[in-house]
Amino acid sequence: MTDTIVPLKRAQAERPAARRKGAEGASLDHLHGLVADDLRAVNGVILDNMQSPVVLISELAAHIVAAGGKRLRPMLTLGAARLCGYTGKRHVDLAACVEFIHTATLLHDDVVDDSALRRGAATANAVWGNKPSVLVGDFLFSRAFQISVADGSLRVLGILADTAATLAEGEVMQLTTSNDTETSEAAYLKVVTAKTAALFAAACRLGAVVAERPAAEEEALRSFGLNLGIAYQLVDDALDYGAREAVLGKSVGDDFRDGKITLPVVLAFRRGDEEERAFWRRTMEEGELEEEDFSRAMALLTRHGTIEDSIERARHYSAMACDALGLFPASDAKDALLAVVEFCTRRAH
Amino acid sequence: MTDTIVPLKRAQAERPAARRKGAEGASLDHLHGLVADDLRAVNGVILDNMQSPVVLISELAAHIVAAGGKRLRPMLTLGAARLCGYTGKRHVDLAACVEFIHTATLLHDDVVDDSALRRGAATANAVWGNKPSVLVGDFLFSRAFQISVADGSLRVLGILADTAATLAEGEVMQLTTSNDTETSEAAYLKVVTAKTAALFAAACRLGAVVAERPAAEEEALRSFGLNLGIAYQLVDDALDYGAREAVLGKSVGDDFRDGKITLPVVLAFRRGDEEERAFWRRTMEEGELEEEDFSRAMALLTRHGTIEDSIERARHYSAMACDALGLFPASDAKDALLAVVEFCTRRAH
């Protein structure tokens, strides 16, 4: 079933050759290669700042770092700084800040969702319980602010503080749309923008800020990150109904079982008849799940083509992300950032 | 029983008349009267910054604000600023920051402890569940940083970020000493200093920082707050084994039932015989609680005089707090701050 629902091969075949070429190189490798030295430095900053005389903090933080993750957000900061021709060192610390804020959010998110898997490994809260996850999240969040205070720029601090508040608002919004089958696409997008895209936007924007580039470039990178982040989350939510667990390191069907309403369901609810809506209400609103319900859900999503359409929506935001970089002249860094967009929308492969 | 364990009347009778006079005025009223206008302004800042387009955030935040609390920490910032002769407006915003950080910690602490009561009202997590408590805590924490970024001082931001990291470390440390009957008095004090006293210290220190007073005065106020905070927590932990619920707005015996090892038990474990230690291990380490166990615990604490001695230890830190203010000339603000120390150690009455 997973093969039928993410028909990216077809989409690829329909594209012009030039874009297909870019698509074939769609991975993080280009950006990774470009910022490899900086990324090593970021990992050093992360490791240094995870240390605490309180052993449990270092242990739990090491567990998260060992689980790894792609370091996508800090790489965006490094790539954006490179795109802006920045030659200093501030981007390294700020990339670490971005990753710390992200990690703190993950820790608190795992408590909230009670998810059993994260990045293919047991979540911290499954191993240590909810308590340390909340508190170590707070610790990492505080560390992010300590690092950015040491960086010494009130503008940067303002961006990070605003972003953190937006993230929290997004997470709370998500709680209120959870289990609500009448969630609109607009409400869904608002949640996605706040809880995911805002940090992507900040990560990219900081590259222009440290390079002291004009406002238009800062805004371009913010917009690039924002649209990339929306596309990323849209694909993520589509994959929750279609990717192999081993590939994604994430359980398929989690969102369905958690009653977390995402775009595939938002669209299917609107496109469905009354009997189908009753099904979505029973399963996702009232949480009365039976054995065959996930198969039925998949059948409905497939019939209405809503997983495919969610990916299609992601392509729209991807296109906006790419165009946002238009005012930057061609460069290795620009190519690498554009490849990230392709990667984010094509990671189902 | 509660009357026997906090024998402050005797202590009072033994004190010289001058100090007794101070003790009789031991309340927050003096400080409250002195900073009333500023405190109203702080409440305004708090109300403004609790607002969010996300309704659940405003609702939950309003619940916490309605529950009220003494606003002790922000009053300390206001009082310290007054003591330093500060005539500007920055102390108002920073006092609100301090209260937001405190409230965020409370929200996360309630999730952690699963306490049923806080300030005599149902805790936020009992009403809304753990999820919103974690996320609204994150929101308030971010707001604190937004406000302090707007204040515009990197020194202040550094103090707040460092304090937030210390608070988180203290909370995690507390988890690791919880249920450990062999916790030493030193380890207990370390937890108390980090999770409670550090924020008192920052609250007071900020008064000197905004007034741009010399380092010695800043250090004096930091030390005043730190020792006051330790005394405050010591009394709080003693009261958990002895105050009437209606008076304190907190369930008696919570710490015992949660297996949270505090000084009365630390001392009783060390002073007890093997049979007593087996009792503490069974109840607080293994959590095997029977009907009569709390009465037995109270009897052991009373026999070894450890509640009384915890209060006695609090007096030691109170004395240090008072002496820390020695270099400030006599003033209304100084008297008011000294009355807070008396209030904190005498609130069992």
Describe this entry's structure for a reader:
Two copies of one chain form a homodimer. Chain A is mainly α. Chain A has a single domain, classed as Farnesyl Diphosphate Synthase (Orthogonal Bundle). Chain A is built from 20 helices and two strands. In chain A, strands 1-2 form a two-stranded antiparallel ribbon. The radius of gyration of chain A is 20 Å and the shape is globular. The interface between A and B is large, with 41 and 41 residues.
Largest interface: A-B, 41 and 41 residues
- State the name of the first-level CATH class of chain A: Mainly Alpha
How do the SSEs of chain A run, as a string of H and E? HHHHHHHHEEHHHHHHHHHHHH
Q: What fraction of residues of chain A sit in β-strands?
A: under 5%
Total beta-strand segments of chain A:
2
In which order are the strands of the major sheet of chain A placed? Answer: 1-2
Query: Which percent range fits the helix content of chain A?
Result: over 70%
Oligomeric state, counting identical vs distinct chains: homodimer
Fold-level CATH name of chain A: Farnesyl Diphosphate Synthase
Low-confidence stretches of chain A: 1-24, 113-120
Mean pLDDT figure of chain A = 86
Distance between the termini of chain A: 14 Å
Main sheet record of chain A: 2 strands, antiparallel
The CATH architecture of chain A would be Orthogonal Bundle
What's the number of structural domains of chain A?
A: 1
Cα-atom Rg of chain A, whole angstroms? 20 Å
Structural class of chain A: mainly alpha
Number of helices of chain A: 20
What's the CATH H-level superfamily name of chain A? Farnesyl Diphosphate Synthase
